[in-house]
Amino acid sequence: MAVTIKSPREIELMRKAGEILAKTHEELGAAIRPGMSTQEIDRLGEKIIRSFGCKPSFKNYNGYPAAICVSVNDEVVHGIPSRHHYLKEGDIVSLDAGVIYQGYHSDAARTWAVGAISPEAKKLMEVTWQSFYEGIKFAKAGNHLNDVCSAIQRYAERNGCGVVRDLVGHGIGTHLHEDPEVPNFAMRKRGILLRPGMTLAVEPMINAGRPDVVWMDDGWTVKTEDGSLSAHYENTILITEGEPEILSMNPKDDPRMLH
Ligand code: MF3
Ligand code: CO
Q1: What's CA 5's distance to the chain center, in Å?
Q2: In a domain, 181, yes or no
Q3: Is the pTM of this model over 0.85?
Q4: Atom number in ligand 1 closest to CA 96
Q5: 86 lies in a domain?
Q6: Is there a domain that residue 2 lies in?
């Protein structure tokens, strides 16, 4: 499938989808507390998404059984919510969610702290978050995709973290997953030329230890092989001639607005 350029009308719909998804993450983040089950998070997330008249993109996607991916500590991504899994103080929890608004998808992930967490966990969350921003500094028309990918890897590794290789970001639009693939590590080629109107889900998955991951028997949950903590930070962005627009974030939370 070719990489698509979205029309102004499509971009408007993706802005709306992103705005709703940003609010969903904000509300979920505010609700996180020790003692909450991962299923409660999923139920709440689905309720919020539907309250905006949207559908959760992930529900039944390739048979995924929930609306929100909830991945705790050494779980990297695609954790399946469970009524038997309770969050406890000191955990970190990655929430990945997607919404469909009038046929257009937005995809975003946040890692939250459950109460007070270790300095190591906090550092990992910050490195993961910052690696996204280091990457998107290069996400502008005229650059090549690999400029973004390699900047993410460089920052994460310079800070002693492991970059997951087995999962990547992606183009997004009328489908959750469109071309191109967006790795969080340098590719052998420079990748596509970025053009205004491209929409990408950039999503570093970063481990405190080694990059290697393993799949659980449930067919979904991905964990770090060495048992180290993992964090995930994702936004749907729009390529422009200048700075990319972060569609799945409330502008008031955009750290780029500070300078
Ligand atoms: N954000 C993830 C991705 O881009 C989650 C989708 S997996 C799903 O692949 F199956 F749960 F939808
Ligand atoms: Co994604």
Answers
A1: 21
A2: yes
A3: yes
A4: 1
A5: yes
A6: no
pLDDT digits (tens, 9 = 90+) for 113-156: 999 999 999 999 999 999 999 999 999 999 999 999 999 999 99
Ligand 1 pocket, CB under 6 A: 58, 61-62, 64, 69, 78, 96, 107, 170, 201
pLDDT at res. 219: 97
Element housing 105 (H / E)? strand 104-113
Which residue's C-alpha comes closest to atom 11 of ligand 1?
58
Q: What's the rounded Cα separation, in Å, for the pair 99 and 20?
A: 8
Average pLDDT over residues 208-223: 98
Classify residue 144 by its DSSP letter.
B
Give the per-residue pLDDT at 164: 99
Please tell me the residue having the least CA distance from ligand 1 atom 4.
169
Residue 164 DSSP class: P
Question: How much distance in Å is there from the Cα of 28 to the middle of ligand 2?
Answer: 18
CA 23 to chain centre: 15
DSSP states of 18-43: HHHHHHHHHHHHHH--TT-BHHHHHH
Q: What is the CATH number of the domain that holds 85?
A: 3.90.230.10
The overall average pLDDT reported for the chain is 98
